[in-house]
Specification:
Layout lengths: L1 H4 L4 H8 L21 H7 L7 E7 L2 E6 L12 E12 L7 H16 L5 H8 L10 E6 L5 H8 L10 E3 L2 E14 L2 H31 L10
Antiparallel strand pairs: 1-2, 3-4, 3-6, 5-6
Length: about 230
């Protein structure tokens, strides 16, 4: 242990003195999860940084000198997602504004945009009927699947800079412009949240199925003859 701490080649020391099965490999165990290492080894090296030496420490098998070669935080593998930054103008269907009228108004806005007579941001600030209006209709960066399917499908067909025809969704009628697209790497936290969301959705689906089966099981139909 003293020779290793003084800068000696740990692998050579292991080859010369170790009685362990890893002797020929310079004492290396390879990168392993903590649960696959003896608890004594984990506890003895928990506070040590890479390159540090622990020991001698005693176990039922004998005495050990340990060197930390590398520590790595385990987690989910790297994952990338497609993200889109878009703007929209939303007109809500009301008794005063029918769906057909909203489509016609947005089609007129689109013609102004194509002719260069207005900017998307200005039209959104003046006419859009949702919270993004004050920011020129900016929806920020969004991952695939964050919008309702009809909006998502129309947006996915657009190239950056293109403006969609009027799109009808459950929220009203939209005019959509894609600003840019990118691929982003999810952080471990993002991946955990995504997994939690999938698990939550699965549980909700299972609960709904169980409830429907229960309702059907308690339901009955009674056939009665018409009064004579």
């Amino acid at each position: 242990a003293d020779r290793a701490r003084a800068g000696g080649d740990f692998a050579e020391l292991a080859r010369e003195f170790s009685d362990g099965a890893e002797r020929a490999n310079g004492g290396q165990f390879g990168l392993r999860p903590a649960e696959r290492l003896p608890e004594l080894f984990v506890e003895s090296t928990r506070s040590l940084s890479a390159g540090s030496i622990a020991g001698p420490v005693r176990s039922p098998a004998g005495f050990h000198v340990l060197k930390v070669i590398e520590k790595r935080q385990s987690g989910l593998p790297d994952a990338t997602v497609n993200e889109t930054r878009a703007r929209h103008i939303l007109l809500r269907v009301t008794p005063q504004l029918s769906e057909a009228d909203a489509v016609a108004r947005l089609a007129g806005f689109r013609q102004q945009l194509l002719a260069g007579q207005a900017t998307f941001e200005a039209l959104a600030r003046e006419h859009s009927q949702d919270g993004s209006a004050q920011d020129g209709g900016n929806l920020g960066w969004a991952q695939t699947g964050q919008f309702v399917p009809e909006f998502e499908a129309a947006m996915s067909r657009l190239r950056p800079g293109e403006v969609s025809p009027p799109v009808v969704s459950r929220f009203g009628v939209h005019l959509i412009r894609v600003e840019e697209r990118r691929q982003s790497t999810l952080t471990a936290r993002d991946q955990r949240e995504m997994v939690r969301g999938l698990v939550r959705e699965k549980k909700i689906t299972e609960a709904l199925r169980t409830w429907v089966q229960d309702v059907r099981g308690r339901a009955y139909v009674e056939y009665r003859d018409a009064p004579q």
